[in-house]
Write a structure and sequence with these properties.
A: mainly alpha, Arc Repressor Mutant, subunit A, 2 strands, B: alpha/beta, Rossmann fold, 4-stranded antiparallel beta sheet, Tscrpt_reg_PadR_N (chain A), WH-like_DNA-bd_sf (chain A), WH_DNA-bd_sf (chain A), Transcriptional regulator (chain A), ATP binding (chain B)
Chain lengths: 167, 224
């Protein structure tokens, strides 16, 4: 995933200038991926070079709106139709840390319990943010995704604890 | 101020020690979740907190009253405590609204007022449009929400929920947690038992129970 695909998707709904793109990107991703405006304009310049977008007229404030080209639309379609590969993800620090704790630490249970309390706090904060999220389903679903990931981590920690108690 | 308070509560069934010296308080306006594996004592804790079961030792106080000293425990349970369980059976020959009214009518509340109360709580739970339907004309999620309305009708200052989401879809379960959270925000003390962390995350405080003992609890700073 790159910023350029996100911008292409937003531009497919009509011409927009940089500040609009940044605001819409952040609100639809639940503010989980903050962009700075320099990043937005650098990306737009590169996309223009590659023929994916083109500049339109400047408005009364001198802001230039960008619009998506046919090539840009084709690139966006290609992106949406390609699933994300599992293997692109980096190694999980928590998994490595727990494996080492179980091998070397006299009380791995404490490591598990501390992690579980921390993950639960994260879930409580995410749930709070979800209750406050009023910007439509995209924002809520991004938060749901993070809640599901935290939940998977909790389940795995419970599983670790149960397995260690038996061994 | 704590509305329900367990102090050094133990509950033994013969040789089985379901709860071991558990101390826990739930304040008005607070939602507390109890998590733990099966047979960890979660449901026993809930039953003891609501006076459905009595401790072997220790005290349980609800709204300032020691449950061991209360003369009419069933009346206190009916008046102040709402119970939400996984399998709440509705009476098939009554409409949704009639099911919800039932506990109030049993309490001697007049029909007109009981109906008004039942429609108000059905509105809160999002099932006001189902008032005149019979249970077999509703989906599983709708039936559960009507049953929750019945558990909450009237002024229940303590709500006890034991795995209230059961096998419901996650988005329907979220709506049920939303209702329980709303009750707490409106001033009720809510105690929720669940084995799913995503639902426990709606709570202000999460308590872990293991073999009848509280092993750790996490408190999120109150930043509402």
């Amino acid at each position: 995933m790159s910023v350029r695909h996100g911008l292409l998707a937003l531009l497919s709904r009509g011409p927009r200038h940089g500040y609009q793109l940044r605001a819409e990107f952040e609100s639809s991703t639940g503010a989980t991926w903050p962009l700075n405006i320099g990043q937005v304009y650098t990306t737009l310049t590169r996309m223009e070079r590659d023929g994916l977008v083109e500049q339109g007229e400047a408005d009364e404030h001198g802001r230039v709106a960008y619009r998506i080209t046919e090539a840009g639309r084709a690139e966006m379609e290609r992106w949406f139709s390609t699933p994300v590969a599992q293997s692109d993800r980096p190694r999980d620090e928590l998994v490595i840390k727990l494996a080492l704790a179980i091998t070397t630490h006299p009380n791995a249970h404490q490591v598990i319990q501390a992690q579980r309390a921390a993950t639960m706090r994260t879930m409580q904060e995410l749930t709070r943010a979800k209750r406050a999220a009023l910007d439509g389903p995209a924002q809520r679903l991004v938060l749901d995704s993070m809640i599901f990931q935290a939940e998977a981590e909790q389940r795995w920690l419970d599983h670790c604890e149960a397995v260690l108690r038996e061994s | 101020m704590s509305f329900v308070r367990l102090a050094q509560v133990s509950r033994h069934y013969g040789e089985v020690h379901a709860l071991k010296r558990v101390s826990l308080e739930v304040a008005e306006g607070e939602l507390v979740a109890v998590m733990g594996p099966s047979a960890s004592g979660k449901s026993t804790l809930l039953n003891v907190a609501g006076g459905l079961d009595l401790p072997t030792s220790g005290t349980v106080t609800v709204d300032g009253a020691d449950l061991a000293q209360v003369r009419d425990l069933p009346a206190l349970r009916r008046r102040a405590v709402g119970y939400v369980f996984q399998d709440l059976n509705l009476i098939p020959s009554l409409t949704a609204a009639e099911n919800v009214m039932l506990p109030r009518e049993l309490d001697g509340v007049r029909t007109r007022r009981a109906r008004a109360e039942s429609l108000a709580v059905m509105e809160e739970v999002g099932v006001a449009n189902l008032a005149d339907r019979f249970p077999d004309e509703m989906s599983g999620g709708q039936r559960q929400r009507v049953a929750i309305a019945r558990a909450l009708v009237g002024d229940r200052r303590l709500v006890l929920a034991d795995e209230p989401t059961g096998a419901l879809d996650t988005h329907v379960s979220d709506e049920i947690l939303h209702v329980l959270r709303g009750r707490a925000d409106a001033g009720a003390a809510v105690l929720l038992v669940t084995h799913e962390s995503r639902y426990a995350a709606w709570a202000d405080r999460v308590v872990y129970l293991r073999d009848g003992e509280i092993v750790d609890s996490s408190l999120l700073e109150q930043v509402r």
